[in-house]
């Protein structure tokens, strides 16, 4: 069982036995995955404050915000 729910790279760290990849490389992928999750949460938290400007400049509509929320839930293992 992964200690980082939702992170597919964390499982590779628990039972590392693949000589083709360095443990550092796998750890970097796991960290990058967590950083991306953090960025999605930051984006979601500013939804109320900047939704209007994002809608106009980046095309962030209801479907896109829903996709962000779904990704966050999946990444947190909820």
Task: Give a description of the structure.
The chain is mainly α and 78 residues long. The chain is built from 4 helices and no strands. The protein has helices spanning 10-14, 23-45, 47-58, 62-76. The mean pLDDT is 75.
* Residues in β-strands, percent: under 5%
Helix proportion: over 70%
Mean pLDDT: 75
Structural class: mainly alpha
Properties at a glance:
mainly alpha; elongated
Write the layout of secondary structure elements.
Layout: H1 10-14, H2 23-45, H3 47-58, H4 62-76
Offer a concise description of the structure:
With 78 residues, the protein is an all-alpha fold. It is built from 4 helices and no strands. It is 71% helix and 0% strand.
